[in-house]
Design brief:
Elements lengths: L1 E8 L3 E4 L1 H7 L4 E7 L4 E7 L3 H14 L20 H10 L3 E7 L2 E2 L5 E7 L5 E11 L3
Antiparallel strand pairs: 1-8, 2-7, 3-5, 3-8, 4-7, 5-6
């Protein structure tokens, strides 16, 4: 069983898509998610307090500032804008695929966990997340 989720983003941040995935999964098995872009990531993260998402964005922006920041003067891939190469660096540091157990048609996530696309670019994008559900063998 396979599908793709299209997620619209409007700049850096975490975009939860747990509900879309939960509506799609069936049965029991293993779900694999894979973002088909090199400047965004996937995370399982807390979905109760929005401050968690804001703090994560702020942390990674501080860790990897834009290419026009003097600390990033060593970057050579800059023709696609000051946020492009830093977005690739962030995507290299964070997961681009996730596996989640599914039991009885439900994601086996913890109480406060959600599935997120982490957008690293400044401008809006339409991101594709490929999903494959492999049923458990009996």
């Amino acid at each position: 069983m396979q599908t793709r989720f299209t997620l619209a983003t409007d700049g850096p941040g975490l975009y939860e898509f747990t509900g879309q995935v939960a509506d799609w999964v069936r049965g029991t098995g293993v779900l694999t998610l894979f973002v088909q872009h090199t400047s965004s990531s996937l995370l399982i993260q807390e979905n109760a307090d929005p401050a968690v998402q804001r703090d994560l964005v702020a942390y990674f922006d501080r860790l990897v500032p834009p290419a026009d920041d003097p600390a990033m003067g060593y970057l050579t891939h800059t023709q696609e804008g000051p946020d492009d190469m830093p977005a690739h660096i962030k995507a290299a540091m964070l997961p681009v695929s996730l596996q989640v157990l599914v039991s009885g048609g439900r994601l086996a996530l913890g109480t406060w966990q959600g599935l997120y696309l982490f957008e690293h670019r400044r401008r809006p994008h339409r991101r594709q997340v490929a999903a494959m559900m492999v049923p458990a063998q009996s």
